[in-house]
Amino acid sequence: MNFELKTLSLSAAARHKCDLLAVLIPQDFAGQDGAIGTLAAQALQAGDLQDKPGKLLRLYASPGVAARHLVLVSCGDGSPGDVRKAVLALAPALKSPGVQRAVLAFAAAPAAGAVAAALRSAADAAYVYAATKSKVEESGPESCLLGVPSAAGVQAEFDAARAVAAGVEFAREWANRPANHATPTLLGEAAKSLSKDKAIRCTVRGPEEVAKLGMGAFMAVAQGSVEPLRFIELQYQGAAKGQAPVVLVGKGITFDTGGISLKPAPEMDEMKFDMGGAASVLGVFRALAELKPAINVIGLIPACENMPDGRALKPGDVVTSMSGQTIEVLNTDAEGRLVLCDALTYAARFKPVAIVDIATLTGACVIALGGLRSGLFSTSDELAAQLLGAGDAALDPCWRMPLDDEYGEGLKSNFADVANVGGRPAGAVTAAKFLQRFVGNTPWAHLDIAGTAWKSGTAKGATGRPVGLLLRWLAERAAGSADSGQQTAAARRRAAKG
Ligand code: BES
Ligand code: MN
Ligand code: ZN
Questions:
Q1: Distance in Å from the first CA to the final CA of the chain
Q2: Which one, 36, 56, 277, 459, has the greatest CB density within 10 A?
Q3: Ligand 1 mutation pick, 362, 429, 446, max ligand atoms within 8 A of CB
Q4: Is 230 a catalytic residue?
Q5: 165-483: what fold?
Q6: How far is the CA of 165 from the centre of ligand 1 (A)?
Q7: Which atom from ligand 1 is nearest to the alpha carbon of 431?
Q8: Where does 348-426 have alpha helices with state H?
């Protein structure tokens, strides 16, 4: 969808020809001159438009309004969270047949972050998966104009949100694609396509090169599949070459059957989303290409399938990770940590300021936090606070979980340095404790997105999370390092241009 930003009073919005005009009405709306302002005030007063965010009133061919469909939607206190609820409630209207040109107008000056929330939510609401359908019954509008009382002050927020939305959509799209349409090879090609931008470089390694690197844990997971593994490395350079990067590591299991520790059949199809972490890294790079923040970022994706087979990894097998640590694989379904541990070891090469891994790692995290907040684990209080703040600000929240050493005790093995599973209690924490063994002293955070990367049930599909959180965090880091005088000449020029 194409987004545009324009200064639009309510009376100008009434004159604007389009298929759908949705007007965001705050709870304290006092009325305004003109057809829409009067109508909205009346509807509020009569209780026909309730003032709870997301409540709406649909009208057709209203006198004095050029749009065929008019929707008045309450946006509560006008905060980004309430605006998001309001715009998500517009999903059916946005996807109605014949709605090609939509306008989303703020009846009152938007609060800070509300324009970004509106754009992001409109993109979320209008997204339609189509890649493997022979015909699509519904589609979102071609264009969406955001109307605000005064556009000048929110142009930068709008531009950034548009780039973030493109990144979220990219992640969603790749996570939604079924495993036979999103193989490790195809993920590698998707990553390569991002290097069209000259700030992004991409290297994709196959089985021989990964063997040379000594990634024995990663290779062990891949060995049961006929699909060759891929190790994807993305580099975004937005700051001076010498500036230490942030490394993002995304779990890229393109399908998780559990391996020999086979999963039960019901809902196994959902394990096509087990590359949601990888998809979020791709989405972040898609957006970085447009945002061009003054920061260096590396993206690492170990991608493979986890399959049962005559050659597959067996419970009890001991594998040697790139770090040299041996691992007893007690459960082949705990494969995510096996592919991640080698990527985390590899990450140290870049002498990063921070490593953040993103993984649909444990069912236990779904039980602990559900679909609202991602699980956050970190060895650094500072990093944890940054990520928590970025998540709340981006409406893509996470929640910090503990990493006490005692939680790692269950990972003891009689036959290797470490086992890949502990007991069932605190399963999300023991998984994180396993990963922690591979990050050394680099500030590190782990986001368990098993509950937040996709939705089950009738709304089954990928969410594109936590692309919003990550981009917010990276943008804040870029702004922070610019403050402390570490910015590049290019960034200074950009800043000077405003
Ligand atoms: N990909 C799954 C985690 C998962 C489960 C994500 C359900 C979303 C929904 C992961 O590879 C896995 O199978 N984890 C096991 C670990 C266990 C064997 C210690 C799990 O959570 O059951
Ligand atoms: Mn698994
Ligand atoms: Zn998995």
A1: 27
A2: 277
A3: 362
A4: no
A5: Aminopeptidase (3.40.630)
A6: 28
A7: 19
A8: 363-369, 381-393
- Structural domain boundaries in the chain: 2-130+141-150, 165-483
Residue at token pair 């844990």: 217
Nearest CA residue ID for atom 6, ligand 1: 450
Catalytic residue among 337, 433, 437, 477: 337
Rounded CA-CA distance 248/299 in Å is 5
CB 344 within 8 A of CB 438: yes
Distance CA 8, CA 285 (A): 33
Taking the CA of residue 255 as centre, how many other CA atoms within 13 Å lie in the half-sphere pointing to its CB? 20
Centre of ligand 3 to C-alpha 392, Å, is 26
pLDDT 10s per residue in the chain (498 long)? 999 999 999 999 999 999 999 999 999 999 899 999 999 999 999 999 999 999 999 999 999 999 999 999 999 999 999 999 999 999 999 999 999 999 999 999 999 999 999 999 999 999 999 999 999 888 899 999 999 999 999 999 999 999 999 999 999 999 999 999 999 999 999 999 999 999 999 999 999 999 999 999 999 999 999 999 999 999 999 999 999 999 999 999 999 999 999 999 999 999 999 999 999 999 999 999 999 999 999 999 999 999 999 999 999 999 999 999 999 999 999 999 999 999 999 999 999 999 999 999 999 999 999 999 999 999 999 999 999 999 999 999 999 999 999 999 999 999 999 999 999 999 999 999 999 999 999 999 999 999 999 999 999 999 999 999 999 999 999 999 766 544 445 555 555 554
Q: What single-letter amino acid sits at 239?
A: A
Sign of the torsion angle spanned by Cα atoms 346, 291, 463, 385: positive
Ligand 1, atom nearest to 263 Cα: 13
**Does the annotation mark 337 as catalytic?**
yes
Residue 256 Cα to ligand 2 middle (Å): 6
**Domain over 2-130+141-150 is classified CATH 3.40.50.2300:** no
- Rounded Cα distance between 75 and 472, Å, is 23
- Pull the structure tokens for residue 375: 């699980």
Peptide bond into 466 cis (omega under 30): yes
List ligand 1's pocket residues with C-beta within 6 A.
256, 274, 331, 333-336, 360-364, 366, 421, 427, 450
Set 58, 68, 263, 400: catalytic member: 263
Nearest residue to 71 via CA among 82, 84, 81, 62: 62
